[in-house]
Structures are given as structure tokens and as C-alpha cells.
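pasting for ref. prot 1 ->
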Amino acid sequence: MTKTMHLRIVTPQEVLLDEDVRSVQFMGIDGSYGILPGHAPLMTATEPGVVTIKYEDDRREELMVSDGFAEMRNNTLTLVCEAGTFAEKIDLERARAAEARAREHLAQRGSLSSEELLRAEAALRRALVRQRLGRRRGGTGSIH
């Protein structure tokens, strides 16, 4: 069995990562996935959350990704998402402001359409994940 697999993390704006890794963990819509080299083919929708990457030299890296999908084929895992941010680049102040905006929208729940409500809930989830990861891994901005 091969020791590594190829990982590509892609957003509409950029390729965030394109290299060989030893393992990847991410959140699918039906739970957490741990992918190792040689994993069977799969395709699944993903949830906003933390992607944990382990490299061959045992280095670990984490990033926050929005929802999207994952495909494992021919020992290559491709994560396609709307947005992604490496832990050390998370702006905590911006994430807190996004949380406050989402909570303000949700406070007006009665006047929101179902689509607006879903967008506000998704924005809140993304902001909370960014804050959790940013605090854990030294993102920018002050911590209160």
C-alpha cells in the first residue's frame, strides 16, 4: 500500500492546496471522514468544518472550509468548497463580526423567508467554526 495520496482543495477563486499527504479528516453531511491512501472511491457532500491534514513528515495543518463536496478517486482526494481559510490566517475579529450579523438576522426570524433563514443559519455555523479553529491555532485578531 502506498504511503501517501494526493490532496487538492479547490475554491472558485483558487487552489488552496495541491500536494501529497498521509491522511485527511473532514466533515461530510453524514458524519466525519478519515481518508488514508488507497481509500475506496467515494463522493459525498461536505459540511462547513475543519479539515485536518497530516503530511508524511508528521506535520499537521488545519483549515476551515465551507460546504461543498469531496471525491476520492485514483488515490486523489479532491475537496471542492465555496471558501477555505488556513487556521493561522483566520481573522478572529472578522469572524466575531460575522457571528454578530448572523445572530441579528436570526433574531428577526419571523420576518425572514425560509431561504434567508437557511443562509443566516449557515453563516452562523461558518463564523463559529472559524472562531473555534482560529482560537485553537493562533489566528489573527485579539481574543476576548
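and prot 2 ->
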Amino acid sequence: MKRKAILVSVFLLLIAPAFAQEAEASAPEAGGTAQAVKYIAAALAVGVACIAGGIAVGQIGAAALGAMSENPEVSGKALPFIGLAEGICLWGFLVGLLILIL
């Protein structure tokens, strides 16, 4: 899993200058490089947050279901943690949106 994440990160770092050059060539007066970096940063914020949130929900959900199968009274204590893990995706989206707006 770590190897895949490293490969994706390296790929994004290698491809980012190509996007920056393309954006600069298409709109040099609008600060094309800054726009390209802004879009890449927003995409990384949302993408990494959603991937991390999915992994967290998967692990927490499996553990919560395992605990509830042995003791049904635990469901009220375990389910809010799944909601907290889903909140990671929301925060990533908000950060990406703020990057694009500001």
C-alpha cells in the first residue's frame, strides 16, 4: 500500500511541471503557473483526504461490526467513530474549495 502511494506521489510530482507549462502557455497574463499549482493543490487535498477517509471508514467499520456481533450494546459507542472518519473527506473538500476560491 505504501509503495502505491509513493508511486502516485512521484508520478504527480513528475507530471505537475507539464501542467504548469501548459497553463502558462495558454494564459501567460493570468499567472498560468500559479493557477496550475492551485488546481493541483486542490486536487491533492481532496484526493488524499477521500482516500484516507475511505481507508479509515473501512477499518473502523470492520472493527465496529466485529464488536457489535459479540455485544450489540456497543453499537451506540462504535457508530459515531465511523462518522468522524467520514468527516476527513469533508475537511479535504473544504480545504480544496478554499484553495480554489482564495
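The mean pLDDT is 81.
The two ends are 33 Å apart (CA to CA).
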